[in-house]
Amino acid sequence: MVQSDPVSPRNNRDLGNSTATHLAANRTTLINARRGSLIDVNSDEQHSMANQTMSESHSNAKRKWQKLYNVFKGINLLKKNIVKTLHQPDEIVENINNSPRRKTRVAQSASAFSSFNVTKIALDDVRQQDRFFDLVQRGGEKDIPVLLKEIENDPKRHFYDRKSPHHLINKTNRMNQTPIYLACRNGNLSIVKFLIQQEADPHILSDVDDEEKESPLQVAVRWNHR
Predict the structure, then answer these.
(1) Distances from the Cα of 211 to the Cαs of 40, 208, 222, in angstroms?
(2) Which of 18, 45, 85, 120 has the fewest CB atoms lying closer than 10 Å?
(3) How is 39-84 classified by DSSP, letter by letter?
(4) Is 206 among the domain residues?
């Protein structure tokens, strides 16, 4: 049986000191690593703050240079004597209105207003036709004065002859059917007589479907309105 040599107290003490030294070194390394991380974080924050400060400084400098540029520009215009003395308030208003920028804005406003008017006229025209066709289909003798008023108030009544397909009494609806055709189809005799008196054209054909057309007389016969 082999016996190990006993460890002397001195050797044991040296071993303990070595272990303690190693642990202390590891602890120091860990602390330094943590400090390094904190230093890196603080460095990033300081860098970000420095960038923000620099950006604000550039913006302020730009505004100051813009003001300085305007001052030099004004001085240059004064040197060239590009100035005009205005004695009356009306002259100030006239100069503002005649400025190129003002004219551009006025032109843009006029164009927008013109487009709005065109759209409004088109919508009013559609609404008038819808009212007229509704009265022709569903109205009766009591509605004839209203129909007459719609014809008289048509802003395009003087543009076209009464026999023209563009006149209100001959216009077609979304189904490409004339007012007198609709009145004949519904057997609305009083409205048919009124439209004939207003010189509506009874010979204009209207659509039955995508392929077939027929006259007001034909639709009246087809629906047995005699």
Answers:
(1) 83, 8, 17
(2) 85
(3) HHHHHHHHHHHHHHHHHHHHHHHHHHHHHHHHHHHHHHHHHTT---
(4) yes
What pLDDT, in 10s, does the model give residues 202-223?
999 999 988 899 999 999 999 9
Q: How many Cα atoms within 13 Å fall on the side-chain side of residue 43? A: 6
Digit-coded pLDDT (tens) for 3-46: 444 444 444 445 445 555 555 555 666 555 555 554 454 555 66
Q: Torsion angle of alpha carbons 177, 182, 184, 190, nearest 10°?
A: -130
Q: What is the CATH number of the domain that holds 163?
A: 1.25.40.20
pTM value surpassing 0.70:
no
Contact assessment for residue 217 and residue 195, using Cβ atoms and an 8 Å cutoff: no
